[in-house]
UniProtKB/TrEMBL annotation:
Domain Methyltransferase type intervals: 103-199
Region (Disordered) location: 1-48
A molecular function (GO) term: S-adenosylmethionine-dependent methyltransferase activity
Keyword Methyltransferase on entry: yes
InterPro entries: Methyltransf_11, SAM-dependent_MTases_sf
Lineage of the species this protein comes from: Bacteria, Bacillati, Actinomycetota, Actinomycetes, Kitasatosporales
Protein name, as recorded: Class I SAM-dependent methyltransferase
Pfam families associated with the record: Methyltransf_11
């Protein structure tokens, strides 16, 4: 749907990627001898276990392509909030990070954490995908850095209460998790009072438009209010990729229900000199409608 995935049809190997050991085989990647009658794309309800399993499997299978296609833009130790390239070094949404314990959720290859490490923070990078975290190790080895990584579902954080000063995600977990409200509660639990929780995700308005970077992507074709998950499934009808939509109002209520105070909602504009196309994000659409929403929250 409104995905930040790699275009798997045309992705060269990056140096070092093909040298990584294979990730553990995920259950849904096994056995593809089923009839093809249920394969395809659907808007349907999907259980939490099926959704998380699909997410882990999909990102394990596609992490190499994602990093090969987007690694240059992301940078090895750079912190961008989304395809518009808003850089945390300029935006300062997390505030002062020096000496702070910071949890990055849905970290991918932990490029953002590595940028914070260089500014004196003490980051921990968490992701559901083992393969994504292998890419973090690969980059660390090239840079002489050592970002601590944890493989877990963001809706069940394996940390004690009140251990982090700050938490954030750049497009990780929330679009893919069936339990956005649970993620908010977990982040609230692991943060110290006064801590910030800053998260970016696909701007909810994008769900009303086709995921097309051209003019076709500027005509509303779907109800913004329909929160039925977007599901890609195999021949057995098992989800292989899932995205979850919440309206802006629903996200605000998730934030408030978890106990956070929302202090800003940033909608980065597309820079006039940025020519890249990333999935459905492009100069053509970026000039007209927001592509990213960044919520800045405080745990009082
Ligand atoms: C679009 S990528 C963003 C990665 C990174 N933040 C970046 O900007 O490149 C989404 C990431 O979220 C992770 N993810 C998806 N569902 C998750 C979950 N339930 N818990 C933790 N991470 C999750 C994926 O494995 C993937 O690495």
């Amino acid at each position: 749907m409104n995905d930040l995935r790699a275009d798997a049809s045309d992705t060269p190997d990056s140096p070092g990627i093909s040298d990584l050991p294979d990730p553990p085989q995920s259950s849904s990647a096994a056995g593809h001898d089923a009839a093809e009658d249920e394969a395809g794309v659907a808007r349907r309800e999907v259980g939490a276990a099926e959704s998380v399993r699909a997410g882990r499997s999909w990102w394990d299978d596609n992490a190499d392509e994602y990093q090969a296609e987007h690694g240059d833009f992301l940078g090895d130790a750079r912190f961008v909030w989304g395809p518009e390239g808003l850089d945390e070094q300029q935006a300062g949404l997390l505030g002062d990070v020096a000496g702070r314990t910071v949890l990055e959720i849905g970290a991918g290859a932990a490029q953002c954490s590595r940028a914070l490490l260089a500014r004196g923070a003490r980051p921990v990078a968490l992701d559901l995908s083992y393969r994504q975290l292998q890419h973090s190790r690969r980059i660390d080895e090239g840079h002489g850095t050592d970002v601590p990584v944890v493989q877990a579902d963001a809706a069940a954080l394996p940390f004690g209460d009140g251990v982090f000063d700050l938490a954030f995600t750049a497009y990780g977990a929330l679009n893919f998790s069936p339990d956005g409200a649970g993620i908010m509660r977990e982040v609230h639990r692991v943060l110290k009072p006064g801590g910030r929780w800053v998260f970016s995700l696909t701007h909810p308005i994008r769900w009303a438009f086709p995921d097309d970077p051209g003019e076709e992507g500027l005509t509303v074709t779907h109800s913004y209010f329909d929160t039925t998950p977007y599901v890609e499934q195999d021949g057995r009808g098992q989800a292989t990729y899932v995205e979850h939509h919440r309206t802006l109002g629903m996200r605000v209520r998730e934030v408030a229900a978890a106990g956070f105070r929302l202090v800003d909602l940033v909608e980065p504009e597309w820079p006039a000199d940025l020519l890249q196309v990333w999935g459905g994000w492009s100069p053509t659409r970026g000039r007209m409608i927001p592509g990213t929403a960044i919520f800045v929250c405080v745990r009082d």
